[in-house]
Every structure is written in C-alpha cells, then in structure tokens.
Amino acid sequence: MQKISAEKLIEIVGSSSNVVAVEFDRVITDSRQAAPGVLFVALRGEKFDGHDFVGEVLQNGAALALVEHLVPGVPAERQVVVPDSLEAFGKIGAFNRSRFKGIVVGLTGSAGKTTTKEEIKFALSRFGKVYATTGNHNNYVGVPLSLCEMDMDADYAVIEMGMSSKGEIARLTSYVRPDLALITNVYPMHIEFFDSFEGIAEAKAEIFGGLRQTGIAVINEDTNFASLLERRAAERGAKIVKFGRNDHYRGKLELPQEGEAQLYNAWATLAVIAALGLDTDKAAVALKDFGALPGRGKRHRLKLPDGGVFTLIDDSYSGQPEAMKIAIDGLAQTGTAGRRIAVLGKMAELGETSEARHIEIGEKLAAAPVDVVVGVCPEMKAMLARLRPDQEAHYFEDKEGLDDFLINKLLQNNDILLIKGARYSSKLYQVTDALLKGLEKA
Length: 442
Fold this sequence. Notes:
By secondary structure, this protein is α/β, with parallel strands linked by helices. About 35% of the residues lie in helices and about 20% in strands. The two termini are about 45 Å apart.
C-alpha cells in the first residue's frame, strides 16, 4: 500500500473528525499486528469488539484508529469516527484499488473459487508479477483487506469474492472494480438464505455490475442459469468469453489431478488467459505443474502401519451438496486396484432442505462405484439409509476416534480414501490432519 495521509483518509471515509497530521501505509484489523505506521480498523464481531483494543493498539505505535465512536481514555485526535467501520474499511480498500495500475481479475462462484483463483495466479505468473487474495479472504472483511494489501508493483491482481446472501457480491465488486469478472459455476449453496435457486444465480451475476468500462465477463456455459449470467453481462456491455465442455482444450490438457472439476478449473483459467490476450498454449503447459490445494482435493500417498499403501484425497474444506457430488464423481473416476472409500461429514446451512439434500448424496453414492461409506454426524443417517446393500456402511456421531478406526480397522492396501465435510461443523479436516501427521508418506 502506498502511504495515505490522515487528511486523505478523512476524505475517503467521509468523516468529520479532527485528527493529527500523520500517514499510514498498512491497514490492520487484528490488534496483535499493531506497529508504527498502521491504521487500525475497529470491527465488531459476535464474540469481540475491536474498540476494546484501540488504546492498546495506539500505545503500540499505530498511527490512527478507525472507530464508530470515540473510545474513552484515548486521544480523540488519533481516532477517525465513522458510522460503520466495516463499510469505511471497504472504501479504503476501494481507494487503494483505484491506484493500482495493473489488471484486476475478480471471481466468484458456488464451488472451486479458491482453487481457480490460485490456478489463475499460477498461470498468470508466467506472464508477469501477480498478486492474489490470500487463502479464502473473500468476504466483507477479507476483500477490503486483500485490496489494502495489494502489491502495487504487480501486473495482475486476482481477487476472490464469496457470498451467502443477495447484495454481497454487488457491494464487494464495487470495491474491487474488476477489469475481468469470472463466475466459475452456480449451485444451490446457501439456498436457505434465498427464495429460489435462480436467486443465487442473480446474486452471482452481481459481479458484472462492478466491471469497469470495456470489461470482460468469463462465464461457464455449462453451469446452471448460464443464459441468465450471459444476459446480465450483456446488460453491462461486457465482452463475453465462455468456457466449458466445448472448450477446444478438451482432451489436450495434461493435469496432475483427475476429475471433471479439475478440468473446469483449468478451462476457466485458460479462458481468462485468452481473454487477456495472453498465450494459452504457454499457460496450458504450465498447468501441468499445478497441484490441488490442501483441503480442496490434494492427494497424498500414505503408508499403513502394518504394510501397504493407500491414497488420501483431502477434500475436507467444504461440505456443500454440489461440492460433495463433485468430490464423489472425482472418487468414482479414479482408477484403483483397491476399494473406494468415502468419509463424509454433515452438510451445513441447508435449512428445511437438509434431510432431502443428505438423501440426495446417499442416492448419488448408491449409483457410484464406491465400496465403503462412513457418515459422520446425525444428519448423515439419512444418507447412509440410501446406500446399496452391497456397500459397507459405518456411522460416527462425531469425528472422535475416526482416525484410529480408519488406520487400524478399515484401510487396506491400494484403497482410495476421500474425506469431505463442512469444515467448521463436521471438523473432518482434523481427521485428515491426524492421518497426515501419524502416517509416513509413501
């Protein structure tokens, strides 16, 4: 971030505070990162209030604090008061983005956002210096933070945006102002917060509203409501680029990971490369070296204690229904001399549709060449009830003892083990961690 003066900050956020004439070149929301030359944004959360740390942060050298009310006992001239510190944070991120001279790629979608973001970053690095969102910082806090932390010397910036309700993408993309906007796919995720499936597509399409003039819209032509997405992009006057099963790279790509999801990620990446006028052949060659991310389909070959080797597919980050189906397809498409085993945790944020969606996954498994299924959490009982008689089934109330069961009772030589579930509600990532820490790599 280039330096911003206190005077300019007042202008950006629309505050009437009288503050000292200082500058900052970094914005933080974590009080533990306090240092000279930073602006601390005091945000409120369900279990914390950043205003409680304003005094401490300023004592540790922070230049200013952005607050919603003056904190008693703290110099008023070091506090910039605004009605909504989160909204003001977004305005600061938007201002920093406006000073960026490179090309900004913004992306959203129901599944595969973070992997596609990393894949685009990986491919673009063959053509210049690239900055990208760290991890999955794709919400009201993460996007402004990503924009504030942009490498201003980069040629490209790749910014991920997520949503769970109408209007979120519109707000985030107003900060990002992408030159190119990509929607990876549209699935009925977070549907409990929408009146209809189409409403989710409309919410995703909000990304096109923030496109800069002469912007580019990259759309998955095979996804749900693809025609709706195309109409919304056209209304914005965007140049439309499509990717999907008709992609001319189909059958020509060499990828380190198997499965249709990996192909779509690669096709999306190459569509972005083509839309930017870059060498797609060079990018396609580069993608041969791009591997899956931890928690998002990364594969590990591990040794069993009593001999033998199995493959672990770590897909433990997300547990939404469509992501679950994609993971099952990936498991089914993987060749093996052993058994295909799926360890699946509950799916969250499904509201009244929860039981029906868990039943859908059971029916998906019953139609797939999966030999063993382990359901974790009570919601998965509905799934297990739909399995074929010849499919071995196991149930765990929670993740406790599951790693020991897998290692010492279930796994055999040449097995392929998929672990997938909602990260924070099923916590199956902890089982993955236990396997990776407790077993030797093959």
